[in-house]
């Protein structure tokens, strides 16, 4: 039997034909999502979740923590994430505190903003009161050191407003702010507060005062408040400080508990004080407050929020809205 001859080899394609086949093959791979490295198209990165941002708070580099804090704040400003915040409450709170204690000035401010949002959003009383208990001594110490004072005052106002469980807790926070406000009055050698810091302190104190009914106010803590704010209104050369002082006086009169805000040995009558305040406010061009002291009726204000009309008819409403708008920036 003869051996079968091998079949001849198939004809080899030309070089031009090879190039055409390679191009066609690459097009098929791209269509199937399997392009080689030379033809790989960029794909959009998957959006990060708030969980991945929370992990960023554990990074060692401060810049990475800053980025994570800013991203979390951005998410919470667009959606509240109640369930995730409550499930990971301790991580947000204590990593935020860690950033405040160890971070740069920017990281400190971002951490204070995050903790403030946490106090506002968390719905469980035991958790939000934990925010208050943990933050109060930290913020009190920070005020004494002068670290990021404006943001500390804003955070203190928010945390106490939402986290305090009773009027005593509210007034403990108010007392911290009041001592800070008056610190530069008691020591001639101490550096005076800047106008911005003084305005922030007054506004935080007023924000907390709006949450209290007059009869709940302590009798001895706020003695001299009317004289203090009147002096600011008459003598301070910054317009924003004068506006804050005039609003403080309007809110104090609105509480109906003036006896708790007079100084010892009061010499002026209510009517005399009313006339003095009205005259000084006219001189400082604080128009809305002037109208209030003419007839003790707060000028009404209307605004639209999420398509709904909102009417403000009292100083406590106006001050609350003003403070919250300032916190959110």
From TrEMBL:
Residues 16-30 have a biased composition (Basic residues). InterPro entries: ARM-type_fold, IFRD, Interferon-rel_develop_reg_N. It holds the Pfam family IFRD. Residues 44-276 form the Interferon-related developmental regulator N-terminal domain. Residues 1-44 are annotated as: Disordered. It comes from the Eukaryota. Belongs to the IFRD family. PANTHER family: INTERFERON-RELATED DEVELOPMENTAL REGULATOR, INTERFERON-RELATED DEVELOPMENTAL REGULATOR 1. This is Interferon-related developmental regulator N-terminal domain-containing protein. It comes from Prunus yedoensis var. nudiflora.
């Amino acid at each position: 039997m003869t051996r079968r001859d091998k079949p001849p080899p198939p004809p080899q394609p030309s070089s031009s034909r090879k190039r055409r086949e390679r191009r066609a093959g690459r097009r098929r791979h791209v269509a199937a999502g399997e392009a080689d490295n030379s033809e790989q198209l960029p794909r959009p990165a998957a959006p990060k979740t708030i969980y991945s941002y929370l992990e960023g708070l554990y990074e060692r580099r401060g810049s990475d923590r800053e980025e994570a804090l800013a991203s979390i704040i951005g998410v919470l400003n667009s959606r509240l994430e109640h369930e995730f915040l409550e499930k990971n409450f301790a991580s947000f709170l204590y990593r935020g505190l860690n950033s405040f204690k160890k971070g740069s000035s920017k990281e400190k401010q971002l951490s204070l903003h995050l903790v403030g949002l946490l106090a506002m959003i968390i719905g469980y009383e035991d958790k939000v009161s934990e925010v208050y208990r943990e933050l109060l001594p930290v913020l009190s110490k920070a005020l004494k050191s002068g670290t990021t004072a404006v943001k500390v005052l804003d955070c203190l106002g928010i945390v106490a407003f939402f986290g305090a469980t009773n009027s005593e807790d509210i007034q403990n926070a108010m007392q911290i702010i009041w001592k800070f406000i008056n610190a530069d009055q008691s020591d001639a050698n101490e550096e005076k507060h800047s106008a911005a810091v003084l305005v922030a302190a007054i506004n935080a104190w007023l924000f907390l005062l709006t949450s209290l009914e007059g009869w709940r106010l302590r009798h001895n803590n706020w003695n001299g408040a009317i004289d203090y704010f009147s002096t600011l209104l008459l003598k301070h050369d910054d317009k924003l400080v004068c506006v804050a002082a005039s609003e403080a006086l309007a809110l104090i009169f609105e509480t109906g508990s003036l006896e708790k805000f007079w100084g010892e040995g009061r010499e002026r009558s209510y009517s005399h004080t009313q006339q003095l305040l009205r005259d000084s406010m006219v001189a400082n061009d604080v128009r809305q407050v002037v109208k209030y002291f003419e007839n003790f009726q707060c000028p009404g204000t209307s605004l639209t929020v999420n398509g709904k009309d909102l009417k403000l008819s009292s100083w406590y409403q106006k001050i609350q809205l003003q403070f919250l708008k300032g916190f959110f920036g």
